[in-house]
Write a structure and sequence with these properties.
Layout: H1 2-33, E1 40-43, E2 51-56, E3 61-64, H2 68-95, H3 99-102, H4 107-115, H5 118-127, H6 131-150, H7 157-162, H8 171-185, H9 189-202, H10 204-210, H11 245-259, E4 270-276, E5 287-295, E6 303-309, E7 312-318, E8 327-330, E9 333-339, E10 345-350, E11 357-359, E12 365-367, E13 369-375, E14 383-389, E15 394-395, E16 406-411, H12 423-428, H13 432-439, E17 447-453, E18 458-463, E19 496-498, E20 504-507, H14 529-538, H15 546-553, H16 559-574, H17 580-590, H18 601-622, H19 634-644, H20 657-671, H21 683-686, H22 703-706, E21 727-729, E22 731-736, E23 744-747, H23 764-769, H24 779-785, E24 786-793
Parallel strand pairs: 1-24, 3-6
Antiparallel strand pairs: 2-3, 2-24, 4-5, 4-20, 5-21, 5-22, 6-7, 7-8, 8-9, 9-17, 10-16, 11-12, 13-14, 15-16, 17-18, 18-19, 22-23
Helix pairs in contact: 2-6, 2-8, 5-8, 9-10, 9-11, 16-17, 16-18, 16-20, 18-20
């Protein structure tokens, strides 16, 4: 009997192994067979004239058409060649249709998207497009659909693996992708709920230490000297039902997971940008650099394009699904972005009655609007969602099961005035006047925009529709009538600069408004360290080159971490007790140069100590509720506590801050499983970068070669090279207007979403190695770099 069972077990193992091998071979075959045609001729029904698609050595398509309609059609077609599954998932995730394909685990995500009214907002924005913009959205959609229609038998492997086919692309789908970018960059409402809980527990005085607004380290781009103070905050006192505390805390933590909020303190999306005048460059022409920090993903969030038609030529990165160039340059102007962090959302505590009514701003009672929607769930039952709205906006209370109040979210994108498509005007602008006029249409997300042109000018403008709040900004839910919006701030009221005397403009998500600014834009800027380092690095230099720009983009020096290292060493030296390992740590820290290098032991020690700082500080006062604490300036808040050593924050079990700091290092080393001999510890190994395919990364045999796997990484959230395990610079761009064909641009992995493509991960060695390459622009440069030529024909 045992022998029979063993034989059956062996047969089962062999059968399963054979199934896995067969499945792997089939999947690789599907990947290979779905590779697009990139040479020769291909019919694309819907074109009015032939279009030339020349791909360079990195697979970047340089598209030339005889008119704008064919150009945008071809952009949609070629994007679908490389990124069709990404296109489909992007619109599904935005609209709340992901569970229909991916099953019950996506229901909570879809419910949130439905209750936030993302699709309804996208539909309104699409209907509000002017005739020309609508036509270009339709051209792009026709291109995507032409590819889908002619390649039904060769769809990307993800469709075959998940056993479904993409629906036709619609203009509203492009606007859904716009909305997904808005959500990534302009979502503040979960932090307001979390801040409310923590403030209620700590009181306003201690809470103020956790939620700074700006810092003495800031260097706004519109001032010559850094300001030394921050604007006052106006935080309404909102009473809470403390009986709901435990359950509500858990609900808010789950909400953060669903909304895709930061996975750790300091893990906030951000970006770097700077522009220097010709007076500071070796060439005598302006240079502009931009690296946008976002969550890493495969396929990449960006897709490089070069688009050309009579009277139009622009190149750079695009968001798959959105027509035209998002960031880059044309023949005369260049531009780049960082997130402004403008506050465009408020939560209102509505007064309601038993008749399902809310009290409006006019004092009258109005019925809550209800719109039932159905979430189709693969491998599960469909779910009905009661989407509700009041006069303020979408009702979000059901997203937080423990919440007993009726909470309504007001968001700038819900306002009918929020409409337009500024990329067209930006792509076509020939000078600052035209470019600045186009920025007036930019409603969301809120951004810092830097500019440089071939005439020698540089500029900066903050953009986005930010509410005009006569009652002041509120960092928690509002339950009074003093914080109603009064329209939006105008473009002229937002920070701006043109040709500054010192020849430098830079932002990195930190505060951009000067002291005593009459129109504060947000309560939550990013930590100041990247921005501070950029200004300090650029200010004393001239004769700058493009290599200098790349050096700065990949800079891993952290002044704040070096200061913390010195403080930790001092604390260990003066603590009541310190073992041999702690003394070794102190010796390494006191001589450290502040570089968060791959091989650095001191960097690993500082990172480990910082990782336990907040739980050690907050748990004695908040218990498990400490996990609700997230703030874009949390590192600065921690720095201030460490350097000022306020008695109110020292946990009672420590006799002194020196004892606390020594134990902070001790606990950090233990939690990080540091080696006994700390000189053998390497920061980059302990803090790797890891980029994985969301689907293939879950499959045996495919995970290792479809992603990067954990790779040692330098830098952290306080360095100009702002990185964490799964996010960092999503692209790197630099242009010197002395030579447009020398402009460099690279993304993280590659242009293609197909692992069998030569262009799936060919850019990874450049990104990981801190290198880059040119993006050819002129006809001669494109011809010299062309590796593949495809002629699309009607």
């Amino acid at each position: 009997m045992l022998r029979v069972l063993l034989i059956l077990l062996v047969l089962l193992i062999v059968t399963l192994a054979g199934t896995v091998v067969t499945g792997g071979i089939w999947l690789k075959h599907r990947m290979r067979s779905s590779l697009p045609q990139i040479d020769g001729r291909e019919v694309a029904h819907g074109l009015t004239a032939p279009v030339l698609v020349e791909r360079d050595q990195h697979g970047v398509p340089h598209i030339s058409a005889t008119n704008m309609d064919d150009l945008l059609f071809a952009q949609g077609y070629v994007t679908a060649q490389d990124r069709l599954w990404e296109l489909d998932m992007a619109r599904r995730m935005a609209a709340g249709d992901a569970a229909e394909i991916l099953g019950p685990k996506l229901v909570d995500h879809d419910r949130e998207q439905r209750m936030l009214g993302v699709r309804a907002t996208a539909e309104r924005l699409t209907s509000a497009l002017d005739d020309q913009s609508r036509r270009y959205f339709e051209d792009y959609a026709r291109g995507v659909n032409a590819y889908i229609g002619s390649h039904q038998d060769r769809l990307p492997a993800e469709f075959r693996l998940l056993m479904y086919e993409p629906r036709p692309w619609q203009p509203v789908d492009s606007m859904l992708v716009v909305m997904s970018m808005v959500q990534i960059l302009d979502t503040q409402w979960p932090e307001k709920l979390e801040r409310e809980r923590i403030t209620a527990r700590l009181g306003p005085t201690l809470a103020a230490d956790l939620y700074p607004t700006g810092s003495w380290r800031d260097h706004p781009p519109i001032t010559t000297d850094p300001p030394l103070t921050a604007p006052q905050q106006n935080i309404p006192d909102v009473p809470l039902d403390e009986s709901q505390t435990g359950k509500l805390d858990g609900d808010l933590l789950k909400l953060r997971e669903v909304t895709g909020g930061p996975a750790c303190l300091g893990c906030n999306v951000g970006s770097n940008q700077w522009v220097v005048a010709g007076s500071r460059t070796a060439s005598g022409k302006p240079m502009l650099s931009n690296d946008m920090h976002l969550e890493h993903q495969i396929p990449n969030i960006w897709y490089e394009n070069d688009l050309k038609a009579p009277g139009f030529h622009a190149a750079g990165v695009t968001v798959p699904g959105i027509p035209l160039i998002t960031a880059g340059h044309n023949e005369h102007v260049a531009w780049g972005f960082t997130a402004l962090y403008g506050d465009v959302q408020d939560i209102y505590v509505e007064k309601t009655n038993a008749q399902d009514q809310y009290q409006g701003a006019d004092g009258a009672w109005h019925p809550v609007e209800h719109d039932p929607e159905t979430i189709h769930v693969r491998w599960g039952r469909d779910v009905t969602v009661d989407v509700q709205r009041t006069g303020h906006g979408m009702v979000i209370s059901p997203l937080i099961p423990g919440e007993t109040r009726t909470l309504a979210l007001d968001w700038s994108v819900y306002d009918p005035k929020s409409a337009g498509f500024p990329l067209l005007g930006m792509n076509k602008a020939q000078n600052w006047t035209e470019f600045h006029a186009a920025l007036g249409q930019w409603f969301a997300p809120t951004q810092n925009v830097v500019y440089a042109d071939d005439q020698g000018h540089i500029g900066y403008q903050a953009v986005g529709f930010i509410p005009n709040r006569p009652g002041g900004l509120a960092g928690v839910p509002i339950h009074d009538s003093l914080h109603e919006w009064k329209g939006f701030l105008t473009l002229d009221q937002l920070p701006s600069s043109f040709d500054p005397p010192d020849g430098i403009l830079a932002t990195a998500n930190a505060r951009v408004t000067p002291d005593n600014d009459p129109t504060p834009l947000t309560l939550e800027w990013a930590d100041p360290y990247r921005n501070e380092r950029i200004w300090k690095w650029l200010a004393p230099k001239d004769k700058l080159t493009q290599q200098d720009m790349l050096t700065l983009q990949t800079d891993v020096y952290s002044e704040v971490n070096q200061e913390i290292a010195q403080r930790l060493a001092y604390g260990i030296d003066h603590a009541g007790r310190a073992d041999a390992q702690l003394r070794q740590a102190a010796d390494l820290l006191r001589t450290w140069d502040g570089a968060m290098g791959v091989d650095s032991a001191p960097a690993a020690i500082v990172a480990a100590a910082k990782s336990v700082f907040w739980p050690m500080i907050l748990k004695p006062k908040l218990g498990d509720q400490w996990r609700l604490y997230h703030w874009a300036e949390s590192t600065y808040a921690g720095e201030q506590i460490l350097m000022k050593e306020p008695a109110a924050w020292l946990p009672k079990q420590y006799a002194s801050w020196d004892d606390f700091l020594a134990d902070m290092v001790r606990q950090g080393l233990a939690q990080a499983h540091a080696p006994a001999d700390l000189t053998h510890w390497q920061y980059g190994v302990a803090h790797p970068v890891d980029v994985e395919h969301p689907l293939f990364g879950m499959l045996p045999w495919f995970k290792d070669w479809t992603g990067t796997g954990p790779q040692p990484q330098s830098g952290d959230g306080t360095t100009v090279k702002g990185v964490a395990r799964t996010f960092g610079p999503s692209q790197r761009f630099t242009i010197d207007w002395s030579q447009v064909d020398g402009a460099t641009e690279n993304i993280v992995m590659g242009e293609s979403g197909d692992p069998m493509s030569a262009y799936y991960r060919d850019q990874w060695p450049y990104w990981y190695g801190g290198k880059t390459f040119a993006l050819p622009f002129s006809d001669a440069a494109v011809a010299a770099a062309t590796a593949h030529t495809l002629r699309l024909e009607p």
